[in-house]
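seq as requested:
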Amino acid sequence: MSGESGAEPVTFESIYKERVWGGRALETNFDRQLPAAKTPFGEAWEVVDRPDDRGRVATGVHAGRTLHELWVEQREELFGAGLEHAGPDFPLLLKILDARRHLSVQVHPPASAVAELGGEAKTEMWYVLAADPGAKLFVGVKEGVNRVAFERAVAEGRTEEMLHVLEPKAGEFLFIPSGRLHAIGAGLVLFEMQQNSDTVYRVFDWNRVGLSGVPRELHTDEALRCIDFDDVAPTMGEAQGELLVACDHFRVERWAIKPGTARGGGEDRFALYTVVEGVARCGASSFEAGSSFLLPVGGAPLETPSGAVVLRTTLP
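struct tokens:
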């Protein structure tokens, strides 16, 4: 089946982030060429518009331009009408994470705390792309844990005892609203969709040192003001048909596309797509697992030669 004509997908150059907890799974799982040999890369920022990290278009008619330039200069044309109040920067940030060691136990501030603490509110979701046997997510607190007990445990070096633990499998997902205590465990590769924010308060970092050789900064007081201690023993997400997450900031669906069928395309709002299984085609481009792209207004539909699963993110 040949696709209908439409705007071509826009791909961006990945921005790789060296992390003490990272590894090389972005290279081995997705056949990528990482920018430095043996360096532990924990994050690939795939679609990003941060002041210090402006995602740059990799190929096509917009090659060399930044996502920020497209958002500011061609917002209605490429992204859709009604977005004039969506902010000066593109409102979403799409990442692929590779955790070879545990990430810090942390929390993102809810909007109610931002006025007092500064920074930016941050809600996100994770989709598990790969999970080693026994890999864990630390999310929320255990039954019976309140702020007093948690604060005492932090002071006594027993933070891990307070954390609720999940063992996810590939294909599962989890919503992380701001205020939810969380840490990604070793052995996981995750898709992450989030608000365009980079504010995090660490409360525990497994008593290790950072890449600089000294312990990373903790933000215990700020974290304690943000943690939702009513968030007890949360579970992995449950899909509602194709819908995984719908919140005030984004909507994420999982589409299973069969050969000989076409999905999406020709829409009046942009969408972000990430291929998680198989190969997806869009216009003249082909995307393998781990690839992400932005489909502008009126974009071509998605097809597949032999079956594909994609995550589709839109604004609510």
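The first helix runs from residue 25 to 30.
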